[in-house]
Specification:
Immunoglobulin-like; Purple Acid Phosphatase, chain A, domain 2; 20% helix
């Protein structure tokens, strides 16, 4: 990709600006804030990992409130929870109640009913469906970078209207390290997650969609951080508390090392990798500097044993190498080379999903890398600050489509032998499509 002198100057300025603003510590606050976010006081509800008969919810609410739950159907059926557990943290105003149901079925809308026990008039209801794990053509959304200070509810409404089967949150769903407050560690992690949950429109939608999630640096705890982050273990516990990712109520879900997980839908395997718990911050030639040894071996073993396509989601980018943004290949070339060679030896094929960079691009990975042509699909951002001039001034010779608009990716894929055929479109509010591609791996 040829770069003009003007682009080089722009890129140099952008690098300097990003370096100056991107390394701010939490107490210094974000580079900018468009407006004070609107925090809601009604329950924030997330539908988590789901299969044909079991599902689970994470409900964030005021700590003094207590809710009763049940599920109903239009046919007159009623289901009581298998289990309810409420999590609190001393000194925090928000609590998390996780609720688990079983005995449901495909093909019908269900109603999740919430009743505050001390206030008969305070009730909530949401519509949800079960997830067909045998669906040969799953349709899913990929989202990252959700700064609650720049919340844009209209993009979430567009996403829900598209009726995806499930959503992948692949990083920076919360910006823990933004703000001027002086609290830190466990209190800050809990508070910022609760604030994001009280803001983002997806958690107040009348129709819920199953969400499977992993993280990147901002929801891990600190910009560009890794295993040296002093609150790493507390952060993992906090992340799993706010989501609903219990394998006990989802037959397809397996937890991996850190906050990683995997599941299979329609013969296609999805990995949500943890790119923070084992990561050495900055450039390192250590053998396991990005995903660590245990997670790498876990992923490769399941990729080798699965008879079809695998999607590998990572918070930061895998292939592109920018001077001011993190990537697997740029920062940790030794582990990247080893993983690439291991994947190349498999009969099965892989596609990469990533976020982080605050613009969306599709990178076509040359056949020489794995023995077949594949892609990295970068989806960013839902609503976060935009890098000036991105993506146009940022070099990437593999790029075949891109947008700097706030957007998410909507993918519909069908397994095809060792690979798959899929359509991918970048969507922006008001039912606008930035680009659409039909691709084969």
């Amino acid at each position: 990709m040829a770069i003009s002198r003007r682009q080089l100057l722009q890129l140099g300025l952008l690098t300097a600006v990003t370096t100056a603003t991107g390394t701010l510590r939490a107490e210094e606050g974000p580079p900018r804030r468009l407006r004070a976010p609107t925090r809601r006081t009604t329950p924030s509800i997330l539908q988590g990992a789901t299969d044909e008969s079991r599902t689970q919810f994470s409900v964030v609410h005021a700590v003094e409130e207590r809710y009763a739950f049940q599920v109903t159907s239009a046919r007159g059926g009623t289901w009581q929870p298998d289990r309810i557990e409420t999590l609190t943290l001393a000194g925090q105003k928000a609590a998390i109640t996780r609720v688990f149901f079983s005995g449901l079925y495909l093909g019908e809308d269900f109603n999740l009913m919430l009743q505050e026990m001390s206030q008969p008039n305070k009730a909530e209801a949401r519509i949800f469906r079960m997830l067909d794990t045998r669906n040969p053509r799953p349709r899913f959304a990929v989202c990252s970078c959700m700064d609650d200070n720049e919340h844009a509810p209209e993009i979430w409404r567009d996403l829900v209207q598209q009726r995806p089967d499930f959503i992948l949150f692949i990083g920076d769903s919360v910006y823990v390290d933004y703000g001027r407050e002086r609290d830190s560690g466990e209190a800050r992690l809990w508070r910022r997650f609760a604030e994001a949950r009280s803001t983002l429109d997806i958690f107040f939608s009348q129709r819920l969609v199953p969400i499977f999630a992993t993280w990147d640096d901002h929801d891990f705890g600190l910009n560009d951080s890794g295993r040296e982050y002093p609150h790493a273990e507390i952060s993992r516990k906090n992340f799993m508390s706010f989501y609903a990712m219990e394998p006990s109520h989802c037959s397809i879900l397996e937890r991996g090392p850190g906050v990683s997980s995997r599941f299979v839908i329609g013969g296609q395997q999805f990995f949500l990798m943890d790119d923070r718990s084992y990561r050495i911050a900055g450039r390192s030639n250590e053998r396991y500097a990005h995903w660590g040894q245990e997670q790498e071996e876990w992923m490769l073993a399941h990729a080798a044993s699965h008879p079809g396509m695998s999607w590998i989601a990572n918070g930061s980018q895998v292939f592109p190498q920018m001077p001011f943004k993190e990537s697997f290949s740029g920062e940790h070339p030794v582990q990247f080379a080893a993983v690439s060679e291991a994947l190349r030896r498999l009969n099965q094929r892989v596609i990469f999903l990533s976020g982080d960079v605050h613009f969306t691009e599709i990178s076509q990975v040359e056949k020489d890398a794995f023995g077949y042509q594949t892609y990295e699909l970068t989806s960013s951002s839902i609503h976060s600050g935009k890098l000036p001039g991105a993506p146009d001034i940022i070099p990437n010779g593999r790029r075949i489509a891109s947008t700097g608009n706030r957007n998410y990716l909507l993918i519909e894929s069908i397994a095809d032998g060792y690979g798959c055929r899929f359509g991918v479109e970048s969507r922006t509010p008001s039912n606008r499509v930035n680009f659409r591609l039909d691709l084969t791996v």
